[in-house]
Amino acid sequence: MESLYPTTKTFSLKHYGIKDATMRYQLSPKELQEEVMQKGQGQLTKSGTLAVNTGEFTGRSPKDRFIVKDHITKDKIWWGDINIPFEPDAFDALYDKVTSYLSGKEIFVRDSYACADPEYRLNIRVINEYPWSNMFAYNMFLRPTNEELKDFDPEWTVINAPGFMADPKIDGTRQHNFAILNFDRKIALIGGTGYTGEIKKGIFSALNFILPVQRDCFPMHCSANIGKDGDTAIFFGLSGTGKTTLSTDPNRKLIGDDEHGWTKENTIFNFEGGCYAKVIDLSKEKEPEIYGAIKEGAILENVIINDGEVDYADTSITQNTRVSYPIHHIENIQTPSIGKNPKNIFFLTADAFGVMPPISKLTPSQAAYHFISGYTAKVAGTEAGVVEPQPSFSACFGAPFMPLHPAAYAEMLIQKMKDTGVNVWLVNTGWTGGPYGVGTRIKLKYTRAMIQAVLNGDLGLYSYDDYHIHSVFGVAQPRKCPGVPDSVLSPRATWNDDEAYYTTAFKLTNAFRENFKKFESYANEEIRRGGPQRYSF
């Protein structure tokens, strides 16, 4: 059936194998929100924000993410537990089943694009079963103008059918849910899960292959902001490390909070048109910009609402409570979402063992080592069976989204560091004074002060008078930092128990070395020497 909005654009879904469907094309967020409410798929908060429950899945399912193994991918993808191969014939058969399932239904279609830099732009068509999924696509991808829509030619297609359940015995999936990338057909096929993050991560995983392989552009799972003097800062970090919080700074313009490209022309551009932030324990006092962005047009996921008020401390559905909103919900943003002259890179880690310095400066070899490692830690309660801190490593601070071998991305980072002279800092936003359950989380105001000191140039170049080389990790930790007590800068001093501190620190360094074994054959001697050099016995 043709579009119900022919003044904007007309086309048929039959091209995709979807027949006799009612197509709702390019609806506004307000129209989509009304559709959600009419269908009983959500509720509104007192602020007018839409809240939905994503159902069985409240987060990504990494073991159910596949890439079709074909002539484009077979010799380039780093196949394994992260990039799981899927047969082309099996994809074609499953695709036909999904499009048959969508036939005859009311379907929500949106044209949008990724990559703010016009030279790297990727046009996307998103086909959704649910209106709130389509509203998420409006929030998270870049939004074409009406003029651009007239001649819009989609290169990639996302087909999203949360209500379709695969049959693993027949369809080749692990279980009933799946997210599959097909680089030959340029399709992201998602089914059996309502978690909206699969939509954006499908396209961004594709870009993490397309940009380095075809465009000589370094893709990064990071946030970025820019100062008044045009200096760009980049923040790498896994979920829960503070990446979104720390890059959303009232004194600096936000470029983006999750996915960026670093071009050969030395510019940084945002992949997306919105933000997808965790809201666990969110407060207006601690994170005013994100708190203020949660208004009509935003979508809250899996939160508990009492009398129209959101209880951000309630994690009875999931710890991974989220909000998506278009980037213009943040007042202080860079338009367009492009920056130049990267000066500082921050690697964020939430060390639940409480042994890593709250901030330290890395050499190029240490930066490459920690980038490949991508360390953070799991704490009790975040996953079933986790009863004490556990080290968690995700290569390049985003392994589930990286189709190439991590060494390929690390080599691009090293080259960028050599070309630009950018400074790299390791920032621990985790625990101090002991491990999780004993110590306390490093205060956000101290972390902000450390980052501000770096951006102001207050920590200066390395010298013995200003820095101390950590006896276990070998990194350079500053002795003083404006706005931060000296004692906080030394993790060992906060423990008041040297033996316990060093025992725990060596335990963590052993975990680093064990994790790095799978990369040793790809890493040169310079990178290998960037890791902890002292061993426990």
The oligomeric status of these chains comes to single chain
- Ranges where pLDDT stays below 50 over 5 or more residues in a row are 1-7, 380-386
Estimated helix fraction: 25-40%
Question: What is the rounded Rg?
Answer: 23 Å
Describe the biggest sheet?
9 strands, mixed
Please identify the structural class as seen in this structure.
Answer: alpha/beta
* Beta strand %: 15-25%
How far the N terminus sits from the C terminus, by CA atoms, comes to: 71 Å
What's the count of strands? Answer: 30
| Mass-distribution shape | globular
Mean pLDDT over the residues: 93
By DSSP (H or I, 4+ residues per run), the number of helices equals: 15
Describe it.
- By secondary structure, the chain is α/β, with parallel strands linked by helices.
- Helices cover 27% and strands 25% of the residues.
- Strand 14 (259-262) and strand 15 form a beta hairpin.
- Helix 1 runs antiparallel to helix 3 (131-140) and helix 9 packs antiparallel against helix 10 (406-420).
- The radius of gyration is 23 Å and the shape is globular.
Features:
537 residues, alpha/beta, nine-stranded mixed β-sheet, eight-stranded mixed β-sheet, 25% strand
What's the layout of helices and strands?
Layout (H helix, E strand, L loop, with lengths): L21 E4 L3 H10 L4 E2 L5 E3 L12 E4 L15 E3 L1 H15 L3 E9 L7 E7 L2 H10 L5 H5 L5 E6 L6 H4 L6 E5 L4 E5 L5 H19 L2 E9 L5 E6 L5 H5 L5 E4 L2 E4 L4 E4 L3 E5 L9 H6 L5 E3 L2 E3 L2 E3 L10 E5 L11 E3 L1 E8 L9 E4 L1 H10 L1 E4 L11 E4 L12 H15 L2 E6 L2 E2 L7 E2 L2 H13 L10 E3 L6 E3 L7 H4 L1 H5 L2 H19 L8 H4 L9
Parallel strand pairs: 1-6, 3-17, 4-5, 4-9, 7-8, 8-10, 12-22, 22-26
Antiparallel strand pairs: 2-3, 6-7, 9-10, 11-12, 11-13, 11-14, 14-15, 15-21, 16-20, 17-20, 18-19, 23-26, 24-25, 27-28, 29-30
Helix pairs in contact: 1-3, 9-10
